[in-house]
Amino acid sequence: MDRFDMLTRFVETARLGSFSAAAALLGVPKSSISQAVTKLEKQLGTRLFNRSTRSVSLTSDGETFLPQSIAILSEWDALQSQFSSSADSISGELRIDMPSRFATNILLPILGEFISAYPNIKLRVSSVDRKVDIIKEGFDCVIRVGALTDSSLVARRLLTYPIYNCVSPEYATKWGIPQSLDDLANHKVIDYSHTLSHKAPVFEYMKNGELRTVEMQSLLSVNSTQAYFAACSNGLGIAQIPSVGVEVELKEGKLIRVLPEYEAQPMPVNLLFPSRRQMPLRLKVFSEWLVNKMRENKKPC
Fold first, then answer.
1. 3-class state of residue 144 by DSSP
2. Which residues make Cβ contacts (< 8 Å) with residue 9, sequence separation at least 6?
3. What are the phi and psi torsion angles at 14 (to 5°)?
4. Coil, strand, or helix at residue 211?
5. What is the mean pLDDT of the chain?
6. For residue 208, how many other CB atoms are within 10 A of its CB?
7. CB-based burial of residue 46 (10 Å sphere; 0-12 exposed, 13-18 middle, 19+ buried)?
8. Are 160 and 299 in contact (CB under 8 A)?
9. Which region, left, alpha or beta, applies to residue 284 given φ > 0 means left and ψ of -120 to 50 means alpha?
10. Are residues 236 and 190 in contact, defined by beta-carbon separation less than 8 angstroms?
11. To 10 degrees, the CA torsion angle through 38, 42, 48, 51?
12. What is the pLDDT of residue 301?
């Protein structure tokens, strides 16, 4: 067993929190996983995992060693891929995280084209609407909506969503449709917050190039895009939703657009990945494919 095999077994065990799960994923005996980790620990002179009968967890040294191991494996994978660039020869696993409604409305309807073009790339798509640690959790890339906060990642702009103010017909019947910013004093907004914070909920809008806010009453705070959309659809308040998520519902009359002259700042969508000297070829071809598909389809921008 070479060092790259040992690192691979260590990384998958760390990701899955189990020797058995790592063995099943890699298609090897459980004993080979534990032997590889034990051998690696002896070479390093430190314990990488805390072990129990049901699971394993990283020690502090293991936490330090994990991102470096992922980086080494990525560099090796990228180096190998330079010498085999035909579509059929590009292989391996590509782990991607993205918001659930981007997956549902944008990526999944077109993903079959990529799979047909690159049949040996195995895709693992996460869409759990939480901020993942791209390095520690072993993602190759993530798709993020909104302002960028991590300057250590390379960003490629995919598109920009206009933001629509929406209510359901049920809400409009009960509360009416606001005709001005002053009317918002008599309305409810659905508060969207990843952390379910106690900040006062606000209605956002742009004026003369500046983002402005109006404090509003709210009966509900949610932390997922699916829940946000469902809350709006069920008449629980005004929601400020990216256009791509509501186009069909607006056409069918299931949602109503309100105050179109007072809409929030358009929301950028970026593909993010770690900065590397050598990008794995499977990530490179996916990145190029997705950027080109967004341009071809001319999604909201």
1. strand
2. 22, 26, 28, 32, 33, 36, 37
3. -65, -40
4. strand
5. 89
6. 5
7. middle
8. no
9. alpha
10. yes
11. 40
12. 36
277 vs 156: CA distance, rounded Å:
17
How far apart are alpha carbons 167 and 258 in whole angstroms? Answer: 7
**Strand partners of residue 204:** 213
* DSSP code string of 2-43: -HHHHHHHHHHHHHHT-HHHHHHHHTS-HHHHHHHHHHHHHH
The CATH number of the domain holding residue 277 is: 3.40.190.10
Q: Which two tokens stand for residue 117?
A: 């073009």
Q: Is 59 part of a structural domain of the chain? A: yes
Residue 119, CB half-sphere, CA atoms under 13 Å: how many?
2
pLDDT of residue 173: 98
In angstroms, rounded to a whole number, what is the distance separating the alpha carbons of residues 132 and 142? 9
Chain centroid, CA 62 distance in Å:
25
Q: For 288, which DSSP code?
A: H
| Residues of the chain below pLDDT 50 | 299-301
- pLDDT, tens only, 76-121: 776 766 665 566 678 889 999 998 888 988 899 999 999 999 999 9
Q: Is residue 154 part of a domain?
A: no
| 157 within a domain of the structure (yes/no) | no
pLDDT of residue 86: 61
Q: Which domain holds residue 27?
A: 1-75
Cα-Cα-Cα-Cα torsion 141, 146, 149, 150, nearest 10 degrees, comes to 10
- The C-alpha atoms of residue 159 and residue 267 are separated, in whole angstroms, by 9
Q: How far apart are CA 283 and CA 273, in angstroms?
A: 9
Q: Are 99 and 196 in contact (CB under 8 A)?
A: no
Helix (H) or strand (E) holding 239: strand 239-242
